């Protein structure tokens, strides 16, 4: 059996990641702020959502396609921006961009990527996520560079006006 075929669900990756990564890196990826209370609350809130079964429906032309911002994607989800991913896997952003492009889903290049944004664009990512710097001149330079690289969608992260208190990073 090929290695990748042993991973049937996302939680299978989590267990393997815990074994593979040094504690500090695993904590950076899997941990959240302070006591992880918001992380647990978010998981619990999502667990409340469910599917409504529809029996005796025509299943011959099933599709998960979803249209967002004028583009049609193969599934209603994509790969969220993950900063500093390349400290966990070799040039991870390039790997993720290629995988997302071949699966027909969006992959968001992180402002905190360790790989130049132009290279990730060339590997297939069309969305760029930014934390806006405070000064207008720097914002303009950033937007121009992202546009010049050919990204079609500019994603603005608005929920980090100050950094979170990530105690697990300090502990590890
Ligand atoms: C290791 C890691 C790095 C992240 N880096 C970024 C980032 O650079 N920019 C950003 O906007 N969000 C970042 N996030 C937040 C994710 O994009 C996402 O919004 C968050 O994990 C919630 O989605 P989830 O429930 O699917 O994990 C990061 C999350 C993780 C776990």
UniProtKB/TrEMBL annotation:
It comes from the Bacteria. Pfam families: FMN_dh. The keyword Oxidoreductase applies. Its cofactor is FMN. InterPro entries: Aldolase_TIM, FMN-dep_DH, FMN_HAD. The keyword tRNA processing does not apply. Keywords: Oxidoreductase. Residues 2-172 form the FMN hydroxy acid dehydrogenase domain. This is Alpha-hydroxy-acid oxidizing protein. It comes from Sabulicella glaciei.
């Amino acid at each position: 059996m090929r290695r990748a075929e042993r991973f049937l669900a996302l939680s299978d990756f989590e267990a393997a990641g815990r074994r593979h990564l040094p504690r500090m890196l695993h904590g950076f990826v899997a941990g959240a702020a302070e006591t992880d209370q918001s992380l647990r609350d978010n998981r619990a809130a999502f667990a409340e959502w469910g599917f409504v079964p529809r029996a005796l429906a025509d299943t011959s032309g099933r599709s998960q396609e979803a249209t967002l911002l004028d583009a049609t994607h193969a599934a209603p989800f994509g790969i969220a921006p993950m900063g500093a991913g390349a400290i966990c896997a070799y040039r991870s952003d390039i790997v993720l961009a290629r995988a997302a492009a071949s699966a027909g889903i969006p992959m968001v290049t992180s402002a905190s990527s360790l790989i130049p944004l132009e290279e990730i664009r060339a590997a297939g990512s069309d969305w760029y996520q930014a934390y806006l710097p405070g000064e207008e001149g720097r914002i303009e330079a950033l937007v121009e560079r992202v546009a010049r690289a050919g990204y079609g969608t500019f994603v603005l992260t608005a929920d980090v006006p100050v950094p979170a208190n990530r105690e697990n990073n300090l502990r590890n």
